[in-house]
Design a protein that fits this description.
The chain is mainly alpha-helical and 95 residues long. Helix content is 40%, strand content 0%. The protein has a domain of 38 residues: Histone, subunit A (Orthogonal Bundle), CATH 1.10.20.
């Protein structure tokens, strides 16, 4: 199966893309390469091969969340440019 210039132009129209003549030719060439690759895969005997959901069997191991008191309340407020007794003071952002 080959992709024609008209099919590329139709896809570009449906995608709301404006392609010039060189872009249409380049896109047609790229799509034909993709189709030839898929045709090569279709030639393989894949009987009994399970489809992959993930590329590896590795599992993402996450650590458990632990609450730690890294710095004290006073240390956090120590270098603040403007602070109240318990909070950072920041400029008003909503009017």
């Amino acid at each position: 199966m080959k992709i024609s210039k008209e099919e590329v132009e139709k896809l570009a129209h449906l995608s709301r893309l404006q392609l010039d003549e060189t872009a249409v030719t380049s896109m047609q060439k790229d799509m034909n390469k993709m189709l030839s690759f898929v045709e090569k895969i279709n030639e393989l005997d894949l009987e009994g091969v399970e489809p992959l959901a993930y590329m590896s069997d590795e599992v993402n191991v996450l650590r458990a969340d632990e609450i730690k008191q890294e710095i004290t309340h006073e240390e956090a407020l120590k270098n603040a440019p403007d602070k109240d007794t318990d909070y950072f003071r920041v400029p008003k952002v909503l009017r």
